[in-house]
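Ops channel
N.P.: pipeline sanity check, posting one input/output pair.
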């Protein structure tokens, strides 16, 4: 059965049942059964995916005879029952909301190995909002580690085995229950196959073993989307996680400029950077720069930007001329951006700790590591304090906006989807006063000082047993000394444990 048919049946049945309920109530309150007040029920409409709104003419018809309702309610209810039973085939069927793969028409813009780049798309006819998501996945910065990456993570360097469709989750989900504010937008997912933090502009040649065309892939996708409905958009949200989150910071102004140059000045361009706000701090333990994971971030990017022929935002480039690698670090590039950007960042980001050589392998951490981890949270807070729109929970994790649990995490009682909705409202506010809307905050950062001191953090599991751990169990597992920490804070150990358990 066609998905749209199922959808229309469900919608009509719900409306009908509402009408039946009102009719039954009305008839029971009218002795003669003829003067029925409110016989035209007006149930509150739930907005549905726009791709189904224009297809009613193609759906099956289920005529109902309302003329005999007043005289024979039993007959009417039989008709309703028959219609409800006709919906049974829909109950076991998954409606197809998947994004479909499109390869770029411009074959010169490619993945690392020269295979065509592309994107996944789910159109939502009638919606003027577009969400374009940049996938993450680290990077490589020389021939040797790019060769190793090609052998072990080929999906991130080649399109040869990309599936034909992709299911969106989190902010890419088409389900209102999972994605209350963006479910009805046109969704675009751009797979990461350039290994260059979305910055490269270098084709594959006889001299270059790999192409690095991340920035060109974004440009080409936007160009194609203009022929698929983006030209009529009101809003384009460029989002991304991890390397994709950094890619948002590097490309959001460039996308805005591209649309403006093509005459689409009415499209508002915004950014949503998830887990891409990295620090160029000193590592806990210095190591040789042999691979992207152990190499100090500044050195890795310094090598990479040359290898990729990487490009950075024009204003940031001018500010850091000759040291353009600075523009890959959020707190340095953000002040130079013109487009509005919402920053989502775990205060204890696992990827940041990894490049800082803090490896949480299940063994209790040393005191020096604890101090380093605490200091990392403080440093991140300091770099985010002047960012007006941000969401920073004190959790040990990495990436969130495409996770199915993204609605569960809260900062100061506010969830991330709610914060994004508040941000949207604040940008739409036409008044001169752009202050935070009452009861709708957009600057949300945890003040508690340890990993997972926020009780809404994602579930932690013991790496060896697989068992879930609460906050106190996790901190103990990591070697957290309650007695010593309580003494440093000048409080009773029992009180400290109570505060940790409650997330205070």
């Amino acid at each position: 059965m066609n998905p749209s048919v199922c959808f229309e049946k469900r919608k009509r049945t719900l409306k009908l049942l509402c009408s039946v309920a009102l009719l039954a109530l009305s008839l029971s309150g009218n002795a003669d059964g003829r003067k029925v007040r409110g016989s035209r029920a007006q149930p509150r409409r739930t907005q549905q995916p726009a791709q189904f709104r224009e297809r009613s003419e193609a759906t099956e018809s289920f005529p109902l005879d309302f003329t005999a309702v007043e005289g024979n309610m039993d007959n009417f209810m039989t008709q309703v029952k028959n219609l409800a039973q006709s919906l049974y085939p829909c109950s076991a069927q998954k409606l197809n909301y998947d994004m479909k793969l499109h390869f770029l028409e411009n074959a010169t813009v490619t993945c690392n190995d020269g295979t065509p780049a592309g994107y996944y798309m789910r159109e939502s006819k009638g919606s003027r909002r577009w969400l374009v998501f940049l996938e993450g996945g680290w990077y490589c910065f020389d021939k040797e580690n790019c060769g190793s990456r090609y052998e072990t993570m080929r999906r991130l360097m080649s399109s040869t085995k990309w599936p034909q469709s992709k299911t969106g989750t989190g902010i890419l989900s088409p389900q209102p229950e999972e994605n209350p504010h963006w479910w009805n937008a046109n969704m675009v997912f751009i797979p990461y196959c350039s290994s260059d933090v979305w910055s490269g502009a270098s084709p594959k040649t006889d001299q270059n073993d790999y192409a690095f065309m991340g920035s060109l892939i974004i440009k080409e996708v936007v160009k194609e989307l203009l022929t698929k409905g983006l030209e009529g958009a009101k809003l384009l949200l460029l989002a991304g996680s991890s390397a994709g989150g950094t890619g948002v910071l590097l490309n959001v102004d460039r996308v805005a400029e591209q649309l403006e140059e093509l005459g689409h000045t009415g499209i508002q361009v915004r950014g949503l950077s998830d887990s891409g706000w990295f620090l160029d701090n000193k590592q806990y333990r210095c190591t040789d720069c042999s691979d992207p994971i152990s190499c100090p971030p500044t050195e890795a990017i310094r090598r990479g930007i040359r290898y990729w022929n990487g490009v950075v935002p024009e204003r940031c480039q001018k500010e850091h001329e000759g040291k353009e690698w600075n523009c890959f670090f959020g707190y340095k590039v953000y002040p130079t951006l013109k487009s509005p950007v919402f920053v989502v960042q775990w205060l204890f980001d696992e990827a940041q700790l990894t490049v800082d050589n803090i490896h949480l392998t299940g063994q209790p951490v040393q005191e020096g590591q604890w101090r380093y981890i605490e200091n990392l949270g403080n440093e991140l807070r300091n770099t985010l304090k002047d960012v007006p729109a941000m969401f920073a929970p004190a959790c040990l994790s990495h990436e969130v906006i495409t996770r199915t649990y993204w609605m569960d995490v809260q900062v100061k009682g506010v969830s991330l989807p709610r914060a994004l909705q508040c941000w949207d409202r604040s940008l739409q506010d036409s008044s001169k006063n752009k202050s935070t809307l009452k009861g709708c905050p957009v600057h949300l950062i945890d003040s508690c000082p340890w990993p997972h001191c926020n009780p809404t953090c994602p579930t932690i599991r013991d790496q060896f047993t697989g068992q879930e751990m609460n906050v106190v169990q996790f901190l103990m597992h990591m070697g957290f000394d309650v007695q010593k920490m309580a003494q440093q804070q000048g409080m009773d150990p029992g009180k400290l444990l109570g505060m940790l358990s409650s997330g205070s």
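N.P.: looks fine end to end. Residues 1-11, 13-71, 85-94 have pLDDT under 50 and may be disordered.
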